[in-house]
From TrEMBL, chains A, B:
InterPro entries: Ald_DH/histidinol_DH (IPR016161), Ald_DH_C (IPR016163), Ald_DH_N (IPR016162), Aldehyde_DH_dom (IPR015590), G-glutamylP_reductase_CS (IPR020593), Glu-5-SA_DH (IPR012134), GPR_dom (IPR000965). It comes from Lactiplantibacillus fabifermentans DSM 21115. The keyword Amino-acid biosynthesis applies. Keywords: Amino-acid biosynthesis, Cytoplasm, NADP, Oxidoreductase, Proline biosynthesis. The gene is proA. This is Gamma-glutamyl phosphate reductase. It is an enzyme of class 1 (oxidoreductase).
Length: 416, 416
């Protein structure tokens, strides 16, 4: 049943109220709570697993959701480890980015503060409940979680454990709240709770993210979709190119930083195409290609126009032969999702031009697109990968969950 | 007449196309164009003034718009000076915020890039056309301008001059485009041009900004509304408090960083209220107050609940007596627009608590709220004052018109 607007507003008010207190906690206080949450997850494992079993019993859960929805003792232990890792990370809150004296003699300091209240909208992965709560809490943000209906019992159990740890520590438990009603109507109201929610972060399928972008009036950080390209330049080391393309495509094909498209310079296409097609097929990849590709390797499946804009998230790749780096860049800027793009080349100039002109969060020379990841980047955490240009771009760690304020000390200055 | 969607999309495509080239211009190239624009404004002053006269002849222009709409030789000279000042500012594009080597040996650099295409929506001030164009151009962004209908001829003339300077320099003139149709229907379509516009910045009345927030699907940077408070603490120097309150209220009452509300600690209210009320009235300010204020100064006009949330932009102030700093902070966080807030106190602890707990872009100790301004902050420019927490908060200068990308150099790394 749809949640009443007033009830949702109350959730928002509670989150906002909690956020004021959260912003004042010391780093030690926050870390202690995170460690207590980790211990509580382990201690209350049986309750969590029982709730998860309830979710899994639901015959309406699509088969493809079962794996990501399933919790085990190991997966709960992983969540607890994750909480401990977040506790060990440096706390950005209170840091001064820079400080200066203006001409009137005011001391101005730009200081990191929490965003306030973060709304997370996600699908059937209960681990997001714990991850997102930990990262928001560490950065002094209250979080309102709206997970998928398939995981409702699991999410309720997990949030109960986390809130219990907050309460035991004397912290307002409304720092972490779960929307118990998973209807679309309630989700839409949530996306418009501008008085209380400072930012929405959707995590999940392209469809989920598009829905949030279309319906939300709260500012959104767009995450996720990745139609990532590798361009093999005429000056590429071809063995390296194969390693990079195969790794990008097959190492974990379902994720957003997987390679989806291969562009090959015409000067090396005749030599290279048979090799790379074979290497991909050896790993079970379906290869599609444009006419020039098929002129060289005839049994490649024809690629249609729709292929160029599609994120397969699967063992499929589409290949196109281009006459120049400029054509490769133009193709990428037309079809990409501004996520991750790579060039393989030993020509320094070609590499730097590619990095400068390709419009994407992460642009690689001679490396796999799979590195676009908060952990690989050394952030120690990741709340998602932003594909927009506002606020945060690419992997988002703790500092991307903060804002800033100017704190200004005067001694009676007035404006002339 | 409403503009066809296809025509608006073409405008967007042209802007996006221009933005790719803009991102590649050197700082010297950009500065030369800005100086050429300044010269062209002066050279073509007669044409601009004639177009402005056409706007001013329109009998439907509201009286209150006439001053801001009127151009003179002096005002055109000011615009030219503004362009030269922007040329003299440092260029953030290409700067590396930081760079590091990850555990796989990848060299990762976080580098400043343009946002891409910026949409500016504003009212009857033709100077915004030139200011915004200069700041967007300096930061390598294409801009699409949608000004108020009252200023259409002036804006057309100004944009023609700026585009002429672009063309003469061999730069794609679609770096600066004006939406010629000022209907609301076209404005709404513009706000939803997500494929081509990276960010919308509305500048003007609270109503304009609320409309953009409600209708836009393009990310918006919310600017402007300022319901700014001064809290006079029990440990305030009262003479200093008077200077700060009077300056904040009367120096330029129509702007967003003007002081709108005065909170006074009960311990000093009986002593201080008669003085400050008199000082404000001496400057023509209408003083409204809560019951406790009126118990001390009986002829103060009663403030209603609506007053606390209202930005007057006029010579009006509302006064409230509070029992503690905590009550002052709670009141501010309930009613403010997160713009600028000040405490007057000689108690260091009280000042720092206020700065930490008040939720606003700029929080002052012992200074006027009027200092919230890109020029006063030393940014050398200002595109607006953000009252949101995402991306930019407070005065926005050049760097706030940029995004970043990660450029990553490898030598064959693949993900394990």
């Amino acid at each position: 049943m749809e949640m009443a607007t007033a009830d949702l507003e109350q959730l928002g008010q509670q989150a906002q109220q909690a956020s004021y207190a959260l912003g004042l906690l010391t780093t030690t206080q926050k870390n202690d709570v995170l460690l207590a949450m980790a211990a509580a997850l382990t201690a209350q494992q049986a309750t969590i697993l029982a709730a998860n079993a309830q979710d899994l019993e639901n015959p309406q859960v699509p088969e493809k959701f079962v794996d990501r929805l399933t919790l085990t003792a190991d997966r709960i232990a992983d969540m607890a480890t994750g909480l401990k890792q977040v506790a060990a990370l440096p706390d950005p809150i209170g840091n001064v980015d820079h400080a200066w004296k203006n001409t009137a003699g005011l001391m101005i300091a730009k200081q990191r503060v929490p965003l306030g209240v973060i709304g997370m909208i996600f699908e059937a992965r209960p681990n997001v409940t714990v991850d997102a709560s930990a990262l928001c809490f560490k950065t002094g943000n209250a979080v309102i979680l709206r997970g998928g209906k398939e995981a409702l019992h699991s999410n309720q159990a997990l949030v109960n454990v986390l809130r219990g740890a907050l309460q035991a520590a004397g912290v307002d438990e409304n720092a972490i709240q779960l929307i118990q009603d998973t209807s679309h109507a309630t989700a839409e109201k949530f996306m418009q709770l501008t008085d209380y929610v400072d930012v929405l972060i959707p995590r999940g399928s392209a469809r989920l993210i598009q829905t949030v972008l279309a319906k939300a009036t709260v500012p959104v950080i767009e995450t996720g979709a990745g139609n990532c390209h590798v361009y093999v330049d005429q000056a590429a080391q071809l063995k390296m190119a194969t390693d990079i393309v195969v790794n990008g495509k097959v190492q974990r094909p379902s994720v957003c930083n997987a390679t989806e498209k291969l562009l090959i310079h015409a000067a090396v296409a005749a030599d290279y195409l048979p090799t790379i097609v074979q290497a991909l097929r050896d790993q079970g990849v379906e290869v599609r290609g444009d006419a020039r590709t098929r002129a060289i390797v005839p049994d490649v499946i024809p690629a249609t126009d729709a292929d160029w804009g599609t994120e397969y998230n699967d063992l499929i790749i589409a290949v196109k032969v281009v006459d120049s780096e400029a054509e490769a860049i133009q193709h990428i800027n037309r079809y990409n999702t501004q996520h991750s793009e790579a060039i393989v080349t030993d020509n320094y100039q070609a590499g730097k031009v590619f990095q400068q002109r390709v419009n994407a969060a992460c642009v690689y020379i001679n490396a796999s697109t799979r590195f676009t990841d908060g952990f690989e980047f050394g952030f120690g955490a990741e709340i998602g990968i932003s594909t927009q240009k506002l606020h945060a771009r690419g992997p988002m760690g703790l500092v991307e969950l903060t804002s800033y304020k100017y704190v200004i000390d005067g001694n009676g200055q007035v404006r002339q």
